[in-house]
């Protein structure tokens, strides 16, 4: 059996009645266990179980399973003791097939269930319903077995089989993370308080508000009890009294009708009572009849854009964050009598358009995009796991459809009033088995439909490009520092891009049509004349950006030549807001496409009042067209719900199909990119922007926008009127007022020129001597190797040195308060160790007389690794708690937006290492202590991070080096790291970091210009050139073995690369050409270079 994954539905082989969901695996890092009921339902060696309880990380070959029966708790189980029942996906999920390097995206789901009526629980049926479930019968010899081979059930006769997912819906009315539409606002449910109706053992009925008053007993399974949730604080006597008849109880988490519960006496006294009344002899246990939402707490994240127009761009006032979804109902009528408030709509993601509302989706080109039928036939996936409770959307129709076998009634749905106790509808079902088929669009453009258990979730630390992704081409890309003048536009500068946030102005924007994952090539269809501007290093899309019509030019490009940003993407299953209100009634009924030209109106900015600070909507405005203001809805009219939708399909022509699931009736609409005003992503923030790691004091307030909250900020467009932000946020000085209109016109022309000219090479260059600013000052000249040659030392630079100069402006921690005076003696000891023990020619450290708490470190990549001969810059800051606390480290990433060069080294500077306290090591000895030294830290970075196969440095992949499951991903990651590392050489010699000029010159440049072959730069160029030649030969010879950095296969201990892909060759050739050009420039201008070096030396002596 293939390895299990999180969210897999599994059953214990020895006891199939124990089935549930995998919640922890060895391939994903986890937080320590909280209070959980853990029972050893299967045999696990004590040492393994003990380590898991301590760390929360299952060892390899084991998974942690949460069983569907809450009283059964959870267990650490060997994968060999489990059977995989089903693996569930939703549209938009990235997947992979075993043994293939190609990834794909789920585009459609076909899902069916086997359901178990809750009325088949004998105790519940007899005591509460007055009904003996045995009359429903059991299987006889005439019954046809309809159970899957991997699943068993004690009474298959009572089950209902092959129920399509769209026929049922979640039984619970409201849960956390549901979307709610009310009074022109879209909100996300943060928390729900439930009212639980319980029928007690004496037949009386009481309502319990809040699940904290309910417990369930833990049966004696005859298995060891590993962990039992501990109550918080003192247990009041009422609770103790109600639980005294049971040896072990746990707080209930998810009660449903039919659940046996224990109620604390205080709740019984309070009531309210629907039948009977409280007496001291009232039994404190019974069964749940109903669970319904009481007070819910909602974060209102976005308003209807049409109402925003009517309210002078600010939108309607947001509703109260406390919401009760039902009309007042003191009698607690059955669910059929409950009525939602008139202006409250709960978005139902499982709802599909009826046949009459399904509309044909026109493809871009015949055969260009695989058709999955009508848009209305796209099923997004219900997100129901095994054990979930559901109800039929049409119970009467279901009773007519599911009559079972004519002869035996095997599989019959008995919908009858006999199952109603005092008006409570208990026609509810438990999902016991799920069969799912997934349609997948693969990277090469092909599609397949297969059983989901044959697919694997592809959730690695860096995503692969896929068809329909939107990308930018590096060629012609220009940038401007955030906060700088609007005219300070220069060619794309990779080093500056990651040293501080920049705005990006791409010339070429396109849609990926297909990807060749082995050759690292993408086929891209480019927009005709896109006008795109990205702010804050690609985090925010400018309000005036327009994609426009898609063009006819399709081009094959290297994956290393294009960039992708989350703000540009539309992901299947994302919630979104569309400008549907601007379409005329005729347009709505006759067309499935909403063009951006029809959808331009002022857009309300994000409204902060009444919104939880932990939720961020990703707002986008459409450029102003005042002629449409009169079409806006007024607050006095009933609020429509057809402005909120869900992305269900994306075309290769840039169009998006949105399902208007709250509209009446539900329908699908095809729109172009510019017509979607907001994307709301459910993804959790990845936490990369860690204030403890990043030098946030040098970044200003730029990161404030997306540093808090669990909603990931994908895109923001903010509308302006008269130069004033309509959300009253005056903190962004990157925008202009009416007085600057002339400058705006100049900038607009410059923007156009940038689109037409492409990259001119006039790239701003960092000036390490400039002081007092966060970012280096631009030089007027082009970066050149001659500048570095002027710093060439006459002798080998020392490995460690204290500089008399001030720290350069890009030094991490520069804006913090100096802490050196607090531990000067320890610093002197560290200096002594560094001066005598650093590996010669491999690690260099510099510090400053004025700031001994700041260190600048250079590590030369080890031989026979993807990082061979490349320079890596790491800054250290010694905090006030040093040496009790570890140094804070910052990695200077020069990866050009290609992703991490190492799983431990993040693009924004974070370094993941146990010695730094940024990663929990398996053993205490791996963590920082006062005995640890900076030398130990640097050597650990060199030996543990810059390794031959860096892919396996990612959390959860340790120990898989000998497993072929991730072999291809590892090889592709090493290739990318090698190619990017050659670029690091280019950046270092053209824009040498301050304080390291002499080291870089001494290590990389020829000391004798007549013998350049004796330099490290020559070695880098020559070995890479040989690798290119050998890779080309290997491709023609169909050789796929390992090579070293020069393409040789002679020494098995030195090989680490497969022959380079075509995409990697394109990028590497370009980098080598630039390096060779610089070296030739140095060699051909030898006299001038020597004179410059002599002048620099004389100046230094003076």
Automatic annotation (TrEMBL):
Transmembrane segments: none
Skewed-composition ranges (Basic and acidic residues): 605-614, 719-728
Polar residues bias (residue ranges): 618-634
Keywords (A to Z) from UniProt: Coiled coil, Transferase, Ubl conjugation pathway
Disordered as annotated region, ranges: 589-634, 719-780
Compositionally biased spans, kind Acidic residues: 729-756
Domain of life: Eukaryota
Database matches in PROSITE patterns: UBC_2
Database matches in Gene3D superfamilies: Ubiquitin Conjugating Enzyme
Key word Coiled coil present: yes
Domain UBC core stretches: 822-986
UniProt entry tagged with the keyword Transferase: yes
Gene Ontology MF annotations: ubiquitin conjugating enzyme activity
Coiled coil: 1065-1092
Protein name: Ubiquitin-conjugating enzyme E2 O
């Amino acid at each position: 059996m293939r390895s299990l994954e999180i969210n897999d539905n599994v059953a214990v082989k020895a006891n199939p009645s124990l089935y549930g969901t995998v919640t922890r695996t060895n391939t994903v890092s986890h937080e320590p266990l909280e209070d959980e009921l853990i029972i050893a339902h299967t045999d696990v060696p004590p040492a393994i179980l003990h380590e898991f309880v301590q760390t929360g990380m299952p060892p390899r070959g084991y998974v942690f399973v949460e069983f569907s029966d809450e009283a059964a708790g959870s267990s650490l189980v060997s994968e060999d003791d489990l059977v995989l029942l089903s693996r569930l996906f939703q549209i938009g999920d990235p997947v992979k097939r075993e043994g293939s390097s190609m990834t794909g995206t789920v585009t459609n789901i076909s899902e069916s269930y086997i359901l178990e009526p809750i009325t088949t629980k004998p105790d519940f049926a007899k005591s509460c319903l007055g009904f003996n479930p045995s009359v429903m019968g059991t299987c006889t010899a005439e019954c046809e077995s309809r159970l899957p081979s991997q699943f068993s059930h004690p009474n298959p006769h009572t089950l209902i089989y092959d129920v399509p997912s769209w026929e049922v819906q979640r039984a619970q009315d409201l849960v956390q993370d549901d979307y709610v539409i009310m009074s022109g606002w879209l909100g996300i449910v943060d928390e729900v308080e439930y009212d639980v109706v319980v029928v007690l053992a004496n037949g009386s009925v009481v309502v319990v508000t809040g699940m904290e008053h309910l417990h369930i007993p833990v049966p004696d399974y005859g298995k060891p009890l590993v962990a039992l949730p501990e109550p918080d604080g003192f247990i009041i006597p009422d609770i103790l009294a109600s639980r005294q008849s049971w040896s072990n109880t746990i707080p209930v988490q998810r009660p449903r009708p039919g659940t046996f519960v224990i109620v604390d006496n205080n709740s019984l006294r309070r009531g309210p009572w629907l039948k009977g009344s409280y007496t001291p002899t009232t039994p404190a246990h019974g069964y749940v009849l109903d669970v319904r939402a009481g007070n819910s707490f909602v974060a209102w994240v976005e308003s209807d854009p049409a109402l925003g127009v009517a309210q002078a761009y600010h939108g309607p006032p947001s509703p109260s964050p406390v919401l009760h979804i039902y009309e007042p109902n003191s009698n607690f009528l059955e669910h059929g009598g409950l009525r939602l408030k008139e202006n409250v709509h709960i978005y139902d993601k499982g709802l599909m358009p009826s046949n009459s509302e399904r509309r044909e989706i026109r493809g871009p080109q015949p055969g260009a995009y695989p058709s999955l039928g009508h848009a209305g036939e796209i099923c997004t996936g219900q997100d129901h796991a095994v054990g979930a409770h559901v109800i039929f959307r049409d119970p009467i129709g279901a009773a007519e459809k599911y009559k079972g076998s004519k002869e035996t009634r095997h599989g019959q749905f008995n919908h009858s009033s006999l199952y109603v106790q005092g008006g409570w509808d208990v026609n509810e079902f438990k999902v016991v088995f799920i069969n799912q088929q997934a349609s997948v669009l693969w990277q090469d453009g092909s599609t397949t439909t297969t059983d989901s258990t044959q697919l694997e979730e592809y959730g690695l630390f860096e995503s692969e490009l896929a068809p329909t992704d939107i990308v930018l081409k590096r060629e012609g890309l220009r940038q401007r520092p955030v906060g700088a003048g609007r005219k300070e536009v220069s060619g794309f500068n990779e080093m500056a891009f990651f040293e501080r946030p920049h705005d990006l102005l791409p010339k070429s924007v396109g849609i990926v049509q297909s990807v060749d994952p082995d050759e690292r090539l993408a086929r891209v269809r480019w927009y005709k004349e896109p006008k795109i501007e990205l702010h804050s290093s690609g985090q925010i899309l400018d309000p005036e950006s327009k994609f426009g019509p898609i063009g006819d030019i399709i081009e094959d490009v290297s994956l290393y030549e294009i960039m992708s940003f989350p703000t540009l993407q539309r992901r299947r299953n994302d919630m979104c807001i569309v400008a549907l209100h601007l379409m005329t009634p005729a347009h709505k009924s006759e067309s499935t496409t909403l063009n951006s030209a029809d959808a331009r109106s002022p857009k309300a900015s994000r409204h902060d009042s009444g919104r939880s600070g932990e939720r961020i909507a990703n707002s986008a405005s459409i450029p102003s067209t005042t002629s449409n203001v009169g079409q806006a809805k007024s607050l006095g009219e009933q609020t429509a719900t057809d402005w909120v939708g869900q992305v269900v399909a994306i075309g290769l022509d840039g169009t998006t199909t949105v399902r208007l699931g709250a509209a009446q009736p539900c329908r699908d609409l095809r729109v172009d990119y510019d017509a979607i005003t907001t994307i709301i992503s459910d993804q959790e923030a990845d936490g990369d922007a860690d204030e403890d790691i990043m030098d946030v004091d040098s970044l200003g307030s730029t990161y404030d926008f997306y540093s808090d909250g669990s909603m990931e900020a994908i895109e923001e467009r903010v509308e302006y009127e008269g130069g004033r932000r309509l959300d009253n946020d005056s903190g962004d000085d990157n925008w202009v007022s009416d007085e600057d209109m002339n400058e705006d016109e100049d900038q607009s022309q410059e923007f156009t020129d940038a689109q037409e000219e492409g990259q001119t090479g006039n790239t701003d260059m960092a000036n390490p001597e400039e002081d007092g600013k966060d970012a280096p000052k631009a030089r007027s000249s082009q970066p050149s190797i001659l500048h570095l040659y002027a710093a060439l030392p006459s002798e080998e630079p020392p490995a460690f040195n204290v500089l008399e100069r001030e720290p350069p402006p890009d030094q991490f921690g520069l804006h913090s308060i100096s802490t050196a005076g607090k531990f000067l003696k320890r610093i002197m000891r560290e200096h002594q160790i560094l001066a005598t023990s650093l590996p010669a020619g491999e690690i260099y450290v510099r510090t400053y007389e004025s700031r001994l708490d700041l260190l600048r470190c250079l590590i030369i990549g080890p031989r026979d690794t993807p990082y061979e001969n490349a320079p890596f810059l790491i800054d250290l800051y010694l905090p006030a708690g040093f040496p009790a606390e570890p140094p804070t480290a910052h990695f200077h990433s020069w990866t050009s937006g290609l992703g991490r060069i190492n799983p431990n080294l993040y693009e924004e500077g974070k370094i993941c290492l146990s010695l730094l306290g940024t990663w929990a090591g398996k053993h205490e000895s791996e963590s920082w202590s006062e005995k640890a030294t900076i030398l130990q830290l640097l050597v650990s970075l060199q030996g543990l991070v810059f390794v031959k196969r860096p892919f396996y440095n990612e959390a959860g992949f340790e120990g898989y080096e000998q497993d072929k499951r991730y072999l291809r991903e590892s090889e592709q990651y090493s290739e990318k790291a090698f190619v990017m590392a050659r670029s690091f050489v280019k950046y270092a010699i053209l824009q040498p970091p301050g304080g390291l000029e002499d080291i870089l010159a001494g290590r990389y440049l020829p000391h004798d210009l007549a013998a350049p072959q004796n330099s490290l730069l020559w070695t880098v160029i020559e070995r890479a050139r040989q690798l290119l030649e050998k890779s080309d030969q290997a491709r023609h010879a169909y050789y796929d073995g390992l090579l070293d950095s020069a393409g040789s296969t002679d020494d098995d201990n030195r090989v680490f690369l497969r022959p380079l892909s075509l995409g990697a060759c394109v990028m590497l050739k370009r980098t080598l050409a630039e390096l060779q050009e610089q070296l030739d420039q140095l060699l051909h201008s030898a006299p001038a270079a020597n004179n410059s070096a002599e002048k620099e030396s004389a100046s230094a002596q003076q």
